[in-house]
Design brief:
The complex is a heterotetramer, with two copies of chain A and two copies of chain B. By secondary structure, chain A is of the alpha/beta class. Chain A has one domain: Glutaconate Coenzyme A-transferase, CATH 3.40.1080. Chain A is built from nine helices and 15 strands. In chain A, α2 runs parallel beside α3 and α3 packs across α4. By secondary structure, chain B is of the alpha/beta class. Chain B has one domain: Glutaconate Coenzyme A-transferase, CATH 3.40.1080.10. Chain B contains eight helices and 15 strands. An eight-stranded mixed β-sheet of chain B has the order 2-1-5-10-12-13-14-15, sandwiched between helices. Chain B has a three-stranded mixed β-sheet with strand order 7-6-11, with no helix packed on it. In chain B, α2 links the parallel β1 and β2. Classes of the chains: A alpha/beta, B alpha/beta. Chains in contact: A-B, A-C, A-D, B-C, C-D. At the A-D interface, α7 and β14 of A face loops of D. Chains B, D: GO terms for molecular function: CoA-transferase activity. Chains B, D: InterPro entries: CoA_trans_fam_I (IPR004165), NagB/RpiA_transferase-like (IPR037171). Chains B, D: Belongs to the 3-oxoacid CoA-transferase subunit B family. Chains B, D: Pfam families: CoA_trans. Chains B, D: Keywords: Transferase.
Chain lengths: 266, 253, 266, 253
């Protein structure tokens, strides 16, 4: 059964230097509050896993939390590049960043395998692209019935998964709705998990489009109202598209970036 | 609406209108972000009101009032016929080949329609690190056909992409079949200068349309390979006043 | 886009002798009305696919529609045996019945592969059991990353899938809620599909726990109020447990069975 | 409630109560239909109010007032914490080994706890065709431990099952590991006569408890192999009045 604890305590207990951390949320429900807490606690050498690194991992990479990034699309959606991610890859600033690069379909299926207790997943993917030449975790596999060659990716089983959701009850049952992305898979694939929520409620009222993650499948729940900003939590907030546009300037320059982080996060 | 609206448009507007026209009513369209999203949303307001918009965030049949900034804006989920998980959108909807059209952008595209959105320069020591693959490799593999929207320049239209993120026709005829890719590949590349389509025999992209006011020499100067023109090279119909008005309502211009 | 047509017409157009037909609905939403229409139209030599054959396939087998059964649990849930199924397997009455036998996990994953456009699925299943010795569609597969041996089953891609749902709108978008079983997978795996519904409505009002199958992924929709009886349609009816208990007697004897079918179905 | 309630119970009631007692509060339990479902529902009303009931129909955390007839009765979905698809319940919830206890029935069970629910007699020419596997093979493989509930008789307790539908300990020590089965197998077999548990060395089921009034000879007479008794063979605690009252409220007796 998930226990409800303050965010700083949950992060201190669950996220350790050198571990693999998956923070998911596909455009929607990105766990910024938790990521900022990881930055404040000065975690280092993390393997950060996320389909779309978004501004969150741009910030974590720029603040030196990461040793490695596993991802499938590292941009500022609809705006352009993630400059801290680019600076790390192109110029090793503030530290070298190893990358393990996939497609969305590949990572999504790797999480599915992880959540399913399987060592690998099969997909029609990557064939003919240059990704397999650079990513060791993409291999061919042959159908035992038809002989057709397809692609396999190994399961992702992070040490910790962190996601944001709209609500939890006091027993740690979590409810989320809208675009739910790959969050269920990330939580179920992980050894430990933290769900930050907009609101703790006495009772989870059923809602159209909502999924529920039972508390017994989660380690900790923490209240973090507004914790998905500048992403959004459907029913609570809207996406701060202006901030995403503004980040292009903030993130472009190392000093501007560090100053912004000092003022707003540290 | 004034009568000179028909000639007062930008090359990006021509590109978006030309892309929107390629979509037929009732089709399903897997939409990439940016130019593809604007074009698909324009089509829904003009020639294809029942176009089914599918975004990789898991929204099926989204009906946004304005093109979203991201592929996961709240309006997509609120207006969708169904919202499914990200694994499901790729596995159940994209992968089996049930989606008619994939709409993609590109940083580089080569003469065989292969797309690069990963790196400029060597992978391990890139000149420019681009966002990467996202949903594109499997969109390019599995949609019944693919439309690419990209501004034409020598930087973007190259003999051979630095990195194959998404396969067009590989190194030529038979490659898609050999790789087991189910869709028919990039049938249309729409630029700010014209429209390219693959030669049915050699799979090489050739110019089939020039937008009004653009010359063949201009298109060739913006292409990094010896660009061939189709024997029946035509001029694109300029945007109609209705198309332009609808587009500008979308983009807020 | 699905077209809305009368049930008899939909069955006549979609279900042909000798084809494979998957009728799904896990205890809930079993498409009885459609199955009875198939019986009335005298279809023969069908390969019937269904995780839990239930009374529906007991009736179809007993009426001679089936040449082969692909299944994972052939009982009367909570009651006992399916006597017509047993009579076909043990005594070839009214016709020999070939069987292809799986576990629930195996068939569920075979549908997932079918819906996903993959030729096979991988699972931790069947190992050590006697099923692989009798079912040719169960094979070992080795993980290309860990070397671990797992199990593969080939995709199920039926000629036709038939399911029952609560509602559809006039464009053929289908909404179902409660226990939704493997219905989405069956429809998406099939070449053609028929969804019978309790009710046609102008607008599908969002509902907690509901999933929507878009009309463009379905061939035909037919109105069939009460069409899941003696199974049930949450929000419209409850399971007729008395009928399930009574079937044990009706189905036990060939003559009683035929008389019942003549009176209630033909 | 009269004082002689404690002795006025059937052997099935004793079996169900003994099974319910094996469940600990807060555990998750994948419930087969019939006797297992009654026992799990009894546990939720007695010693394990926060037991998480999981049915293969996809209902997680169901809280039925009465044991359902089928594993998909409406009350399961209406009272569940979450309802998921059938593929999801097997793949995301059962397969990774995150469920504590699997509760299964059996038509035949052998000395190594292997279960048959498929056929009596040869597969291709069966004497009795049984329902088949359902969810059982993977429940038996993947739950952290398995409890089997089955009435004891020579017909059911056989030297070797006619068909291995669900693996217990295979042909003995090391087999589960060799097969890659993740759960620890059938730790408890509860019958109307007593309780059997696997010998930790040889994996053979041995009698550890006799229900009140049952003799070792009776248990042996109802077993198709040389049934060993544990050195510390004990008598099961009879049902308490509270247990019996709760059970009878459930079964309507």
């Amino acid at each position: 059964m998930a226990t409800v604890v303050p965010l700083a305590e949950a992060v201190a207990e669950l996220v350790h230097d050198g571990e693999s951390v998956a923070m998911e949320g596909f455009t929607h429900l990105i766990p910024y509050a938790a990521g900022h807490e990881i930055i404040r606690q000065g975690r280092r050498d993390l393997t950060l896993i996320r389909m779309t690194p978004d501004l969150l991992y741009d910030q974590m990479i720029g603040m030196g939390c990461a040793r490695k990034l596993v991802f499938s699309w590292g941009g500022n959606p609809g705006v352009g590049s993630l400059h801290r991610f680019r600076d790390a890859v192109q110029n090793r600033w503030p530290a070298p960043l190893e990358i393990e690069e996939h497609s969305h379909a590949g990572i999504a299926n790797a999480y599915v395998a992880g959540a399913s207790g399987l060592p690998f997943a099969v997909l029609r993917g990557y064939r003919g692209t240059d990704l397999p030449a650079h990513t060791a975790t993409i291999k061919p596999i042959t159908c035992p019935f038809t002989g057709e060659e397809l692609t396999a990716v190994p399961a992702i089983n992070p040490d910790v998964a962190v996601v944001h959701a709209q609500r939890a009850d006091r027993r740690g049952n979590v409810q989320l709705w809208g675009i739910t992305g790959v969050q269920k898979e990330a939580v179920l694939a992980a050894r430990r998990s933290l769900v930050t929520v907009e609101e703790l409620v006495d009772e989870l009222e059923p809602r159209p489009g909502a999924i529920v993650l039972p508390g017994w499948a989660i380690t900790h729940v923490s209240e973090a109202p507004g914790g998905s900003h500048p992403s959004y939590s459907a029913g609570y907030s809207t996406r701060d598209n202006d901030f995403y546009l503004a980040w292009d300037e903030i993130g472009r320059d190392r000093e501007t970036f560090v100053a912004w982080m000092k003022e707003h996060v540290l | 609406m004034t009568t000179d609206l028909g000639t007062d448009y930008t090359s990006d507007e021509m590109m978006t209108v030309a892309a929107a026209r390629r979509l037929r009513d009732g089709q399903s369209c897997f939409v990439g972000i940016g130019l593809p999203s604007t074009a698909a949303n324009l089509a829904r307001r003009t020639n294809a009101p029942d176009l089914v918009l599918i975004y990789e965030s898991g929204t099926i049949g989204a009906k946004p009032d304005l093109p979203p900034l991201s592929i996961g804006d709240g309006v997509l989920a609120e207006t969708a016929d169904a919202v499914v998980s990200v694994p499901e959108i790729f596995n159940y909807w994209l992968q089996p080949g049930r989606i008619d059209v994939g709409f993609l952008g590109a940083a580089q595209i080569d003469r065989f329609g292969n797309i690069n959105t990963t790196v400029i320069g060597p992978y391990d020591d890139p000149k420019v690190r681009l966002p990467g693959a996202g949903g594109a490799p499997e969109i390019a593999a599995s949609c019944r056909e693919v439309t690419v929207i990209v501004r034409q320049s020598r930087r973007a239209f190259v003999e051979r992409v630095d990195f194959v993120t998404s396969v067009g026709f590989g190194s030529g005829p038979g490659d898609r079949e050999r790789l087991g890719l189910r869709g028919s590949g990039p049938r249309t590349v729409i630029t700010d200068l014209g429209i390219l389509e693959p030669d049915p025999v050699g799979c090489e992209l050739v110019l089939t349309h020039l937008h009004p006011g653009v010359t063949l020499d201009q298109a060739r100067a913006a292409t990094g390979w010896e660009l061939a023109a189709a024997p029946d090279l035509r001029e694109t119909e300029p945007p109609t006043p209705d198309e332009l008005a609808a587009l500008r309502r979308l983009t807020g211009r």
